[in-house]
Amino acid sequence: MEAGMVTAAPALVRFSSIQKTYDGEHLVVKNLDLDIRKGEFVTLLGPSGSGKTTTLMMLAGFEVPTHGEIYLADRPIKNVPPHRRDIGMVFQNYALFPHLTIAENIAFPLSVRKTNKADVQERVSAALRMIKMETLAHRRPGQLSGGQQQRVALARALVFNPQLVLMDEPLGALDKRLREQMQLEIKQLHQTMGITIVYVTHDQSEALTMSDRIAVFNDGIVQQIDRPDALYEHPVNSFVAHFIGENNVLAGTVETVEREYCRVALAGGGTVTARAVNVSGAGASTSLSVRPERVAIVPDGTVSEGPNRLPARVQNTIYLGDHALAVLDVAGNGEFMVKLQPGAHHSLGHGESVHITFRPEDCLALDPV
Amino acid sequence: MTAASLTEVPLKRRLRRAERTRQVKALALVLPLLVFLLFTFAGPIAGMLWRAVDDREVRQVLPQTIAALANWDGKDLPDEKAYAALAGDIQAARAAGTIALAAKRLNYALNGFRTILTSTARNLKAVPEAGTAKETLIKINSAWRERTTWTTIKDAGGPITGFYLLAALDLTRNADGAIVAAPPDQAIYRDIFARTFLISLGVTALCLILGFPVAYLLATLPPGRSNLLMIFVLLPFWTSLLVRTCAWIVLLQSKGVVNDSLLWLGIIDEPLRLIYNRFGVCVAMTHVLLPFMILPLYSSMKAISPAYMRAAASLGAPPLTAFLRIYLPQTLPGIGAGSLLVFILALGYYITPALVGGAADQMISYFIALYTTETANWGLASALGAVLLLATLLLAIVYGKLVQGQPVTGGMKN
């Protein structure tokens, strides 16, 4: 974090020791420090109640931090009302004004800024072109589909060229296919227009698809903020490992720590070597994290190399089209997932005894769950 | 083709039969209410509308006279035949004791007619000999020499008349049958209608001004507190109208709570006149009608997501702009419904103005009540009611058109 501050491009948004409580008893956001650089797409990811939406609302100006200061372009904005922050926002249910037409909705931020009429017209039609909805300009929001409303909300938040755009789970109400399409469209808009976007979601795949950086929230604390691939490959704790992507957990106790690696005795029997990411030392209990696609199944009796070899029993196999999953019972974990090539699941019989192997670097020893 | 038509017919019939059971069931469910409304609402209203134009009293009492006048052009005095018919009718009516019925009706049209008719009946000892009827009658009462006396009888001949409706609008027919303004001493109803509309409009405006913030508070407060506030709003509904009105009398009378407090505080030196005038009427009516404004406003405001105001703010609209351009237009259906409701209810108000108003604050319903209960002038009462009903219907139609024209638009153009 400290190194980041030194080398970072100028931060557009800076949260400095932000705390927020609603009831004066427990903190929804606990001591948040977060920098968002200009042109960045940052996602605040976390389960509901983790403080991500509160953080976004404080940035938008709808909630006031209990402690700390928020800077936008180096200007403290804690006491700036929302309408003077110059931040565009896309809401969860779009919040398109039902009594205005699409064109009037998009023109709204311009007309409240007393932009001259010709200019408004020009920019509104440009925005309508951008979302490919020129022909629907005179419809009302109620006459549009969810995806179309979403586009209008996007155009409305962008039309006045705000220095920052906030999105609060904007795709939550759309079906899966449309959601994936809109993810790509938003990402493309971000790249072509060079805008700074702060995006809130609880959907980790959405976050992975779109973001430059993801801040993983839990319990009012940013657990980790990093690039999507780094979060997946190098989670700093069990929460992040579990929240981002599929993850198998094996409980155990650290026997020895040797530089980056440690030997862990599993609670369900067996010993493996794992990367020591978040363990205090020998004797500490730990949770091992292994991704399903980093595990190989070897038939019983085969001899294989490597320190990590555990007996397993096939519980079930699931066919998923582009891949298949084997559900195994490994060292007391009855839902240990292993990703297979499609078709490979035919060779695994229910109840069959097999062995699994994985490399020490693919097995992370993290804090106990 | 044949196969299709073979199956089609029974299918259609089956469908109809299935639908019919459903329709009968639905009808059976609403039937009790329908019958009730028919007898207590539709029937009386139809009766009232009919009474506004019904005019058969004179025709019943003086049938021969009406028949004799049927072909009279009204330019000169009628001929001897008409006088003879009248004399005959009066004799018959006196024997039957129905003279007063016709006298009452004719007196509405021409002040003093009652005297003319009763004196004639009293002094007409016997049916005059043929050819002397005119002479005899004029001798008894010189009014029979006046053309207007006869036109009045002809006009009141019915069976249908516009007399009451015209009277309700301060109009009358002159001796030549033309519609002219009623004489000033009878022309009071336009003023009363204007007063009724003015008071109703004022009460509606007061209700809107007072109710809007309350409804907003109700719609935005957290549920617990908004429920409590809602109970306060609904409290008047659980109290008798009479009690509430009397409470205002206690509060506003010259030795009432308000005046005493103001005197004690030294703000005024002598009691203000707060009741038995327009002020008292408006205060009491606003209080009684306020819930009818608050509830539709509340329901329209409850439907407005707080996200709209947030969206407006995030798009750069200061609070007032956001309110005027985003919030207010969305409450217009509620404002319209509440205003219409309060206005129409206020138009028909009777008890409150009667108790806390002065003579100059009585609304049209007071006069309708007066004519039905005191003077038994059912025709005029019905005509006033019909005019009020028509005006109300017109307003409702205009409101409907306005709402239909622009669904929820506040007419705010960018």
Automatic annotation (TrEMBL), chain A:
EC number annotated for this UniProt entry: 7.6.2.11
MF terms in GO: ABC-type polyamine transporter activity; ATP binding; ATP hydrolysis activity
Gene3D superfamilies hit by this protein: 2.40.50.100, P-loop containing nucleotide triphosphate hydrolases
Residues of the ABC transporter domain: 13-244
Top-rank EC class of the record's enzyme: translocase
Keywords, ordered alphabetically: ATP-binding, Cell membrane, Membrane, Nucleotide-binding, Translocase, Transport
Signal sequence region: none
Any one cellular-component term (Gene Ontology): ATP-binding cassette (ABC) transporter complex
Record-level GO BP terms: putrescine transport
Coiled-coil residues: none
Catalysed reactions, as listed in the record: ATP + H2O + polyamine-[polyamine-binding protein]Side 1 = ADP + phosphate + polyamineSide 2 + [polyamine-binding protein]Side 1
SUPFAM superfamilies the record matches: MOP-like (SSF50331), P-loop containing nucleoside triphosphate hydrolases (SSF52540)
InterPro entries associated with the record: AAA+_ATPase (IPR003593), ABC_SmlMolc_Importer (IPR050093), ABC_transporter-like_ATP-bd (IPR003439), ABC_transporter-like_CS (IPR017871), Mo/tungstate-bd_C_term_dom (IPR008995), P-loop_NTPase (IPR027417), PotA-like (IPR005893), Transp-assoc_OB_typ2 (IPR013611)
Protein family according to the UniProt entry: Belongs to the ABC transporter superfamily. Spermidine/putrescine importer (TC 3.A.1.11.1) family.
PANTHER family: SPERMIDINE/PUTRESCINE IMPORT ATP-BINDING PROTEIN POTA (PTHR42781), SPERMIDINE_PUTRESCINE IMPORT ATP-BINDING PROTEIN POTA (PTHR42781:SF6)
Role this protein plays: Part of the ABC transporter complex PotABCD involved in spermidine/putrescine import. Responsible for energy coupling to the transport system.
Subunit structure: The complex is composed of two ATP-binding proteins (PotA), two transmembrane proteins (PotB and PotC) and a solute-binding protein (PotD).
Name the record gives this protein: Spermidine/putrescine import ATP-binding protein PotA
Gene for this chain: potA
Automatic annotation (TrEMBL), chain B:
Intracellular or extracellular location(s): Cell membrane
Keyword Transport appears in the UniProt entry: yes
Keywords for this protein: Cell membrane, Membrane, Transmembrane, Transmembrane helix, Transport
Entry's Gene Ontology BP terms: transmembrane transport
Record-linked PROSITE patterns: ABC_TM1
A Pfam family per the record: BPD_transp_1
Domain ABC transmembrane type-1: 193-399
InterPro entries linked: MetI-like, MetI-like_sf
Record GO cellular component, one term: plasma membrane
UniProt superkingdom: Bacteria
CDD domains the record matches: TM_PBP2
Segments traversing the membrane: 26-50, 197-219, 231-254, 274-295, 307-328, 334-357, 378-399
Membrane topology recorded in Swiss-Prot or TrEMBL: Multi-pass membrane protein
Family (UniProt): Belongs to the binding-protein-dependent transport system permease family. CysTW subfamily.
Protein name per Swiss-Prot or TrEMBL: Polyamine ABC transporter substrate-binding protein
Provenance organism: Bradyrhizobium forestalis
Highest classification ranks of the organism: Bacteria, Pseudomonadati, Pseudomonadota, Alphaproteobacteria, Hyphomicrobiales
